[in-house]
Amino acid sequence: MLVASVPSGHVYVRHLAPEAGSGPRRLPDPKPLGQPADSQVWWPPAMLEPSWVRSHDFDLLHLHFGFDARSPEDLAALVRALRETGRPLVQTVHDLRNPHHEDRTLHDAQLDVLVPAATELVTLTEGAAAEIERRWGRTATVVPHPHVVDLRTMAVAQDVRARRRTDDLRVGLHVKSLRAGMAPMTILPTLVETVAALPGAVLQVDAHHDVMDEDGPRRDNRLATYLRGLEADGLVDLRVHDYFSDAELWAYLSSLDVSVLPYRFGTHSGWLEACRDLGTTVVAPTCGYYADQGPVLSYVHAEDTYDAATLAAAVRAAHAERPRLGASIDERRRQRAEVAAAHDRVYAAALEKVGRRCASA
């Protein structure tokens, strides 16, 4: 089976295949115009162009990410091209609310084209599937998020964590480049006060240069000034840097005991899954379906709601109870095999619905 996967090289998509590397063959991500041949950039995805669909050989298109900048009319043209060439559309609904969009109108309109048109739908949690049913009357197959961190790195990280001192607690908040769904200024006062009162606890805040630097293109003066003040008072361990590589990100998450997600809207989180791989406890907001992905400590936080007491209680519970909420390597291995098998079934059902045999058959 030949799958046009949008994208193909993303870690989530790579881990849909069996660990042994068999299963459907996925076309590599085409290089966008202007990108050198050795570039790892896949966005904007050429596979979403109707002309690409009509001029390439594949059995089905599986859409994950990358349609943010496409208009609903563009996506309708993609759907028409797939139908005219007899190829099914499989869509995994990762985001029911785009975490990068302050205004949800465009993303809702995009989903209003894609979800009704998809031959088969997949999503990651039962909560998201229920929302899809409510909004569009469609049934989505629920397939959990596979591991994010490679299994060898997981093994090393989990071994190191098992030998770590347990009387200290490092609580991490990473504001990255302040995407629209984040609200760090809402939760930081609670975190500062709560962590300062816990014996052996440290609050580490990471941020990118583009947010913190005076000439940063995404400079947030209020946040930067506040964090520098907390740093001067010795209340946070502030670290400013550029984007982490994967290896740097895994090392960072492994160094934390707790990672607090500062989201006020969103749906699912690969960051959460990486934390589970590395044994880092996640404190997650009640917006979206983060708690459906796996065990977390929850606090009340959404677009119009925030309960500081619930965040303080979650951090205190992490300090007192030291919960083990991660996933073992054996669990992730079993899950990956189940995820691969579930996608095989979804693909077979999609091909059957359009009466298509695989190109390799």
TrEMBL record:
Mind listing the GO molecular function terms for this protein? Answer: transferase activity
Keywords from UniProt, A to Z, are:
Transferase
Q: Which Gene3D superfamilies match?
A: Glycogen Phosphorylase B
At the top level of its lineage, which domain of life is listed?
A: Bacteria
Annotated protein name in UniProt:
Glycosyltransferase
